[in-house]
Input
Amino acid sequence: MEELILSALSGHNIIEFTYDGHVRVCEVHVLGMANSVKQILCYQLSGGSKRGKIPNWRRFDLDSIHDLEVREQTHDGKRPIPSGAHSLWNKVLVVVS
Output
């Protein structure tokens, strides 16, 4: 799965997956470690969520992602992250360019 995420990061591809019982359609922007858990930071474009509005920024634990697909559809790359609206990483592995 990590290889698919790395491919999506480098190609700016949209990804689709199931997480916590909801299908999510996202731009993946960061692969990193937080509290010893490998996670991705995404801008969720559509799909379901138990928390808050969509579109919005979300973090997802890699171990809880299912049925990941990399779409042919792409995005423009980096988005501005609202100041103070994100949590810290222990280690950033890859960031979208």
Q: What stands out?
A: The chain is about 10% helix and 55% strand. Residues 2-95 form one domain. The chain has a mean pLDDT of 91. The CA atoms of residues 77 and 97 lie 6 Å apart.
